[in-house]
Amino acid sequence: MIGFAVYGAADATPVIYCHGWPTSRLEAGLAPALPVRLIAMDRPGYGLSDPNPKATLKDHTNDILLLARHLGLKRFAVVGVSGGGPLAAACAYYLHDLVSALTLISPVPPPHAVTSGSLATLMRFGRWPALARPAMSLAREFILSPDRAEAIVFGRQLPGKDGAVMTRERRAALLASMREGLKQGIQGAVTDASIYGRPWGFRLEDIRVSTTVWQGTVDHLIPAASVWVYGAIPGSRVNVLEDHGHYSLALGETASIMDELVARIGAPGN
């Protein structure tokens, strides 16, 4: 079974939304009203989707294709936020004839571009499942805890514009999306970590879809320097914005990011 949610008018531009790690389809609902139709799928093991411990990025794109056919979509754009970035890029590679444009927001980069920090630790866990499972089980306990979740996920003070964008309501909504994603257990999160930390099965240089990348300079989860690797996509544009963190672009600049996406879809050749 594949769990999904749809946000926006049925006649608006269809956009497949690839959620972050370790959240769920509900993450797309945090965005304000937009001029697009957001279609968010739970990756295997998250939310309502059946687990697939041996899944690859190509397997995930097959799920996207099944969902697109179920909804009668002939073409669609793809947005990948944070941990959804690798899947969005894979859609652009494997489903290129169907993908009109690609937008990546604070995306997890390929493993060779990450050398330090919490993301590097997550990728190491992905290569060693025996280490990953106890660590992620503990993290799940904290996220499911009503008393400790916010401190673990957000810390004492969010950097840059994240602090203003992540209101109490948005923090609660994002935690609810994480709890939905982890309600089955940790298998979805473990599978994702394994995917992030190993070769993805394609080269960014071989993507032939119009691409824009958005990244903040003070992102505490995705190192800004590592995201430049997506500049290898031919014709791509990488926008690094001062004082933006991990959440302020996806939630605070959503409307302008989607306007830019819609404009590219309408350009000749897309």
Jot down its keywords.
seven-stranded mixed β-sheet, 270 residues, Rossmann fold, globular, 7 strands
Q: Beta-strand level of the residues, as a percent range? A: 5-15%
Range of helix content? 25-40%
User: What is the CATH H-level superfamily?
Assistant: Alpha/Beta hydrolase fold, catalytic domain
Q: Strand sequence of the main sheet, in spatial order?
A: 1-3-2-4-5-6-7
Unreliable stretches (pLDDT < 50, length at least 5) are none
How far do the termini sit from each other?
Answer: 32 Å
Can you write the helix and strand succession as a string? EEEHEHEHHHHHHEEHH
Overall residue-averaged pLDDT value: 93
CATH topology term? Rossmann fold
What is the tally of beta strands? 7
Q: What's the CATH class, please?
A: Alpha Beta
Tell me the domain tally. Answer: 1
- What is the CA-based Rg, rounded? 17 Å
* Overall spatial form: globular
Major beta-sheet overview = 7 strands, mixed
List the helices and strands and how they pair.
Layout: E1 4-7, E2 13-18, E3 36-41, H1 57-70, E4 76-81, H2 85-94, E5 99-105, H3 117-127, H4 129-144, H5 149-154, H6 162-165, H7 168-181, H8 187-196, E6 211-216, E7 237-241, H9 248-252, H10 254-265
Parallel strand pairs: 2-3, 2-4, 4-5, 5-6, 6-7
Antiparallel strand pairs: 1-3
